[in-house]
Amino acid sequence: MQIIIHRGTHQIGGCITEIATASSRIFIDMGDNLPGLEAPLTEAQKQALVESLCNHNKRTHEAVIYTHGHFDHVGMLEYVPASMDQYMSQGTQDMLLLKEEVLQKGLELGGRNADENCFRIQRIRDCKTWQRPPHRHKPQPWQIGDIKITPFFVSHSIFDAHMLLVEAEGKKILHTGDYRGHGYISKGLFPTLQHYIKQVDVLITEGTMLNREQEASPEWVISQRMEAMMKKFKYVVILASATDIERLMTIENAARKANRLFVTCSLLLDKTLKYFTSFDGGQSQKLFNSERHKLSPTKPKMKLLKDMQDKGFAMVVGAGHSERVEKIMQNLDNEKTLLIYSAWDGYYQLPEQIETNPGYSQMRSLFKNVVDIHTSGHADRKTIEKVIRTVHPREAIIGIHKEANASLGSLNLPEELKDKIVPDRLQLDYITTK
Ligand SMILES: [Zn+2]
Ligand SMILES: [Zn+2]
């Protein structure tokens, strides 16, 4: 058994973990670096990196498995050799395809070259998928050679994220991916760990929030704060991620309680909201059931515009929509208008992010009134502590997806667990952290 953390012990994102036996191996995530948090690589450098990882240490049975669809986990999937199978959850594939297809349409309409994007779409379609089991059912494991993998869904800031239980050569390894304890669907986290996963040998956990002392606000508190703002301001625009089902529920709940029309003006948001509505209508709990109005950016219905102006509205938008939002705002009283910024603050604070994703700061600059209402998609310190105590690793605890100066050792844990935390950049028995 070999566990190699290729990237992630000293950076948030860009995650790559390799787990190998004598005959088989899997990579968990093949993520790209997040702009501003780590040096960006050129396309050629990314290709060379993935090829060197895949060509080195080869085994008979091999695969790449993705925990969720964020760029810092799936960003390099198109460089993985076609001979290696890639796996993701059905919801992850659906989200990625919805996003890429909307992007593709934009490229085609703008007369730009869409070949690279076409290739990425094909590689996503080629991925094998697993389905989330019905409510209260145990997920089905599958094998890559002699490695057994069981995915368990978790709450994160994107739909259908999973942690992976990996079993091989008598060892149990839990790789958490990105997760949190303060979302609506987080109530399943500890029962899942206690009843299905139990004690493990090695825990690989994310540690994004290790350097932040305060507890994360739960998603329902975010909804209450939004509701209060929607009652204060007649015209409210909310900037949020189209693929974050829980945040969209938060916004929809707030709009309903504040008695505001719930509006979207984005093709992607319209598609993901439709998807979430049918997904949760078809599965166990009815998590999401939104009543909404779609405002076409090219041919807006006059009746809807008038209703919005008369009754007020809560309109959810993405970072790329500042132009259309500006147009809508022209006819509204600026004093009665508010932007709820419900995304990571790094997008408008880090210079590299502003350069890569200018839409976030552009959107903020349109409004006189702006309020940040957001909570992280990542586990706070207390949740990480509780996860460690619950799975009580027998051999090792490894922190990834964390800042270089952040350590699991700073958590409040008994000494016998602290002793199992593997320092960064270490070669130890069967574990290597780079
Ligand atoms: Zn991540
Ligand atoms: Zn993530």
Low-confidence stretches: none
Helix content: 25-40%
Number of strands: 20
- Spatially, the strands of the biggest sheet line up as 6-5-4-3-2-1-20-19
Based on helices, strands and strand pairing, what is the structural class? alpha/beta
> Can you tell me the overall shape?
globular
N-C termini distance: 17 Å
Mean pLDDT level: 93
Q: List the total number of helices.
A: 15
Q: Mind telling me which CATH architecture of the largest domain this is?
A: 4-Layer Sandwich
Question: Which fold name is given in CATH as the topology of the largest domain?
Answer: Metallo-beta-lactamase, Chain A
**Level-1 CATH class name of the largest domain:** Alpha Beta
Question: How much of the residues is beta strand, in percent?
Answer: 15-25%
Largest sheet: number of strands, sense, barrel closure: 8 strands, mixed
- CA-atom Rg in angstroms: 22 Å
CATH superfamily of the largest domain: Ribonuclease Z/Hydroxyacylglutathione hydrolase-like
Domain module tally: 2
Heterogens: zinc ion
List the helices and strands and how they pair.
Elements: E1 2-7, E2 16-20, E3 24-28, H1 43-55, E4 61-65, H2 71-74, E5 85-89, H3 90-109, H4 115-126, E6 128-130, E7 142-144, E8 147-154, E9 161-168, E10 171-175, H5 189-197, E11 202-206, H6 219-232, E12 235-239, H7 245-257, E13 261-264, H8 267-282, E14 293-294, H9 302-311, E15 313-317, H10 322-329, E16 337-341, H11 346-349, H12 351-356, H13 359-365, E17 370-372, H14 381-391, E18 396-400, H15 415-418, E19 426-428, E20 431-433
Parallel strand pairs: 1-20, 3-4, 4-5, 5-6, 10-11, 11-18, 12-15, 12-16, 13-14, 13-15, 16-17
Antiparallel strand pairs: 1-2, 2-3, 7-8, 8-9, 9-10, 19-20
The structure holds zinc ion (ZN) (2 copies).
One zinc ion is lined by residues 68, 70, 156, 158, 178.
